[in-house]
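Bench notes, afternoon.
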Amino acid sequence: MKIGEFAKKYNVPISTIRYYIEEGLITPKKHGAQYNFNEFNESEMQLLIDLRDSSFSLEEMRQFVNISRIFDEKDPLRCKELGALFMSKKKLLAEQIQSTKAAIETINLKLRELAFRETVLTASAKTPLLSGKKTGLPLKSLSFIVCPDCESVLDMDNVKLSAGSVISGSMRCSCGYEGYIQDGIICVDKNIDLDQDPSFCDDYFIDPTTSEHESLFYEGFLSAPQRYLSINYEARTWLNEIIINRIPHPDTVLFPDIASVFPYLYSNAEYLKNATIIIMGLSRETIAAVRKHIDSLQTDLNIIYIVTASNKLPLKKKSINLLIDYLGSYNYAFFFNKPLYEYLDPYFSDSASIAGCLCYYKTGAKSPLNISREYSRAMNPFITLSSYMDTLILHGYTVIEDKKIGYNTVFSEYFHYHENGEKQYLHTLLAVRPAASK
């Protein structure tokens, strides 16, 4: 429906609808100069009305929407965080009880709903064997696993199995390579543990003193400004839709670093259900946190979790046919002196596709210089849109669709390298090799 009809349906001024759109709280598609609102936008609007009727301020609405978008609805932590918002508001309203009785009743109802759902989801998450959830390296994925140095079949010792998956064990090759599986996660580099490297932890985590790092799923996102969250949400949505429309049935999908939010947020996507999913990262603790969130959804996704400080993957060469590079290349550029694709290219098939999203600064910006000074391992010069595109072309990719998502100028303390006022841009694309475009 058009904006006038949409505003009339919810009895709000058109100017309010436009303001909500500008704030990223409602996300209609735009064709030319005209917004078109669908059923999903109606649910967004109804949520805002419910929150408004509960006396939520605009800032509180933003927090609620951000949590709803960051966490999957099947994750009990989502219920906990939303419930915490409701509880905080309830206390404030109780202090102003003369004018807020109706709002308290609404919140009580929402709290009961969330508490019930959290209880059910938490109880379900504690019974993985009954649900059939895979708890480690899936046995049916072992055919992918080879020595990262010579590609020979690996010998495995002291293997522990559970629910059709490998929970722990050692991996060895006659060439001398050694790795291991711990808690269902493949650890490629036996003698390197970045979680024990103070300088890496200082650079990688918001708070390296915490026992479990949630930087990819929680801290980094929720500490960011609203516009940053909104344009990242738009970028994720664009990538998800382009994959659905252009690459609906990939066999093997790789998610580097923060791109692992995709099998979490889009766990019901058809393009993931029958694929072998590979999630790679630099930190074992972060991968474990990612896995915890995905496991809480009780999905049947076929996932291989890999931790590697060298970007070596114990996978057959040319076995990956889709890379979802949602901010992965950008984040890896802080810790490696050459593009991520330089390391990963041997693993991509001749018909591979890349659904990418890159943060970047324009040439001459001060922020990349700050990054080079603060991060000793960072690419220098730091990654730019043109260098990103040049790397794709060098490895035989052609960009067939792309979109300039937008830019942000204000960041939280987490982005301490950012020069105040400079524009950090976000750009999405779909790139394919010739065999994939036929």
